[in-house]
Design brief:
The chain is an alpha/beta fold. It folds into two domains: 3-86 and 234-392, Alkaline Phosphatase, subunit A (3-Layer(aba) Sandwich), CATH 3.40.720; 92-229, no CATH class. It is built from 14 helices and 13 strands. Strands 9-8-10-1-11-12-2-13 form an eight-stranded mixed sheet, with helices on both faces. Strands 3, 4, 5, 6 and 7 form a five-stranded antiparallel sheet that branches. Helix 5 crosses helix 9, helix 10 (272-281) runs parallel beside helix 12 (305-323) and helix 11 runs antiparallel to helix 12.
């Protein structure tokens, strides 16, 4: 029996509420051997109080030793096997800006980048240009014309954009053109299979025109293509868990991830305070809430240990407001680790906390990597987090006689 066949079979409806608070990239590393991670360094009295009444563990987003992208990381948290559902980032970004993808559409996540005089990448994110600059550059790229293909360009946030090619016969499996490092030229588009060969030619033409259009727009004088994909088939959250699910997320990609599994995406403003207000306003309308906090990831990617600590403390300060709503199950975790020491996503297991009135508490009284290593949840695949949440919420029937 497939896992989701089992969750469909065991669903039980009640009035319990589940909150999954995802602190993106929360896992970290100490800067020196024997030191503390960002999470362990932060002053987190509210998370520590939750740890005392709950149970802790470490979750593996994909497999041991595999570094996940944000898409696989979140799908695992949602209870979808990220090896079975490999969703291209372009699809997630397109859904995140409310672009309705059709069967002939190929969606691409774009990153504006900086090229030096030798045509080599000097900054993969174009200095994190302001949203107003990124939006104007997208308007310029939207003038690109390719015979036989409709081209759509949408700004996402800062240096991020979405490109959609619409034409019959296009495949979605292209290699990224981002080499993931500086000092080298962007890669050329390469098809992963025969079906994607026509898309290579379209992408080459788009990039050729983009290079001319952006030539005078340093630091955003070119772009790389990532996560080229078509819209997949995936079961809805209501189907597999019987939950009315609402997503309280600011960044478009995470809104797209939620929309992919048919969560209702709620307008959440731009700040954590705005997100808490939306959570409060929508409390009676949903059984499950996905609340996403981005900035523990971006500070980790910037290699800024102290800034990540401050962002964790900011998250901690919001916990009492969420807990005042009396969720039956409260989860705090991340989609992956982003140690400031590494300035990137990593394969390290992710600190995870579940608190409910029926969880089996452990001896842990602080929320950090070392405590989670000793916690009662142990070390488990993230794709089983939702089944643990459902059990703690009393939303599963007994299996078998």
């Amino acid at each position: 029996m497939e896992f989701h066949d089992l969750t469909r079979k065991l669903q039980r409806e009640n009035d319990t509420k589940i909150v999954m608070l995802v602190s993106d990239g929360i896992g970290g590393l100490p800067l020196t051997p024997g030191g503390k991670t960002e999470l362990e360094t932060a002053n987190t009295p509210n998370l520590d109080a939750l740890a005392t009444r709950g149970t802790l563990g470490l979750s593996t987003p994909v497999l041991p030793g595999i570094t996940p992208g944000s898409g696989p990381g979140h799908l695992g948290l949602y209870g979808y096997d990220p090896l079975q559902y490999n969703i291209g980032r372009g699809v997630l970004e397109a859904l995140g800006v409310d672009f309705e993808l059709g069967p002939d559409d190929v969606a691409i996540r774009g990153n504006f980048c900086s090229l030096d005089e030798q045509g080599k990448i000097s900054d993969r994110r174009a200095g994190r240009i302001a949203c107003e600059i990124g939006s104007k550059l997208c308007d310029k790229l939207a003038t690109i014309k390719i015979p036989g293909v409709e081209v759509f360009v949408r700004h996402v946030k800062e240096y991020r954009l979405v490109i959609v090619f619409r034409a019959a016969g296009l495949g979605g499996d292209l290699e990224d053109t981002d080499p993931q490092r500086t000092g080298v030229a962007p890669l050329e588009p390469v098809a992963m299979n025969e079906q994607a060969q026509p898309t290579v030619k379209v992408a080459q033409e788009f990039l050729s025109q983009a290079r001319e259009i952006l030539i005078d727009d340093y630091p955003a004088n070119f772009l790389t293509l990532r996560g080229v994909a078509k819209m997949p088939e995936i079961p809805t959250y209501n189907e597999v868990y019987g939950l009315r699910a609402g997503a309280v997320a600011v960044y478009p990609m995470y809104r797209g991830l939620a929309r992919l599994v048919s969560m209702d995406v709620l307008d959440a403003g731009q700040t954590l305070d705005d997100q808490c207000s939306r959570l409060e306003a929508s409390w009676n309308d949903y059984d499950f809430f996905f609340v996403h906090f981005k900035y523990t990831d971006s500070t980790g990617e910037d290699g800024n240990f102290d800034a990540k600590v401050k962002r964790i403390e900011e998250l901690d300060a919001a916990i009492p407001r969420i807990m005042a709503l009396n969720p039956d199950v409260m989860i705090v975790t991340g989609d992956h680790s982003t140690p400031a020491k590494m300035k990137s996503h990593s394969w390290h297991p992710v600190p995870t906390l579940i608190a409910s009135d029926v969880c089996r508490t452990d001896a842990c009284t602080t929320f950090g990597e070392a405590s989670c290593l000793q916690g009662g949840l142990g070390h488990f695949p993230a794709k089983y987090l939702m089944s643990l949440a459902m059990a703690n919420a009393g939303r599963f029937e007994k299996y078998g006689a």
